[in-house]
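#struct-help
A.M.: can someone run this one for me? Single chain, 202 residues.
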Amino acid sequence: LEEVDQEFLNKIQEIARQAAENYSHFKLRRASQLVMELAQIGNVYFDGKHPWKDAKHEETRVRMETTLAGCMECLKILALLSFPIIPSTAEKVWQMLGYQNSIQDQGWARILSEKVPVGQSIRDPIILFQKIEDNQIEEEIGKLKQLSAQQVAKEKKMTSSPATPISSLKPIVTIDDFRKIDLRVGTIRQAEPIPKSKKLLR
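D.P.: on it. Structure tokens below:
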């Protein structure tokens, strides 16, 4: 490992630690930002190391392999960190890295501590997110405008229709009447379901 490789791996672990802390405090927005940060530093690391150049020469091939191994670690942690937010997509990344099991079967601590196994065959990459074309966006905006117009028309119709008369209210009770009510606090000591009922308890 060169210094840049070790710094990169340390940074991955630090981002994972921060993400775990944010998830445990239900700070999903910050956790999702950390996922994006990890993806960004992975891109910077890959571009900065130029593995495509190192692959051309036998003496630099080991450097290229180290870079790719670092990228595999980054993708592994990226799958882990994104799993609570986008589980199906994270699982696809995990499977592309050559794993046969599921992320949730491994557990957070184990995935962080174990490296991608040496010699593990990675699978052909697949497109994770489909690009939305401008015409699709315009089509969806048109549908939203149509629904909005229908809702406005419906509300106008409701407000223009005559109000339904309300039956007269019962007379207001006096404080003396209210004092006659016997209110008590009780403790439930036992409860059991009533046969043939889904909601009632005895």
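A.M.: thanks! The chain has a mean pLDDT of 90.
D.P.: also worth noting: Residues 134-160 form the longest helix (27 residues).
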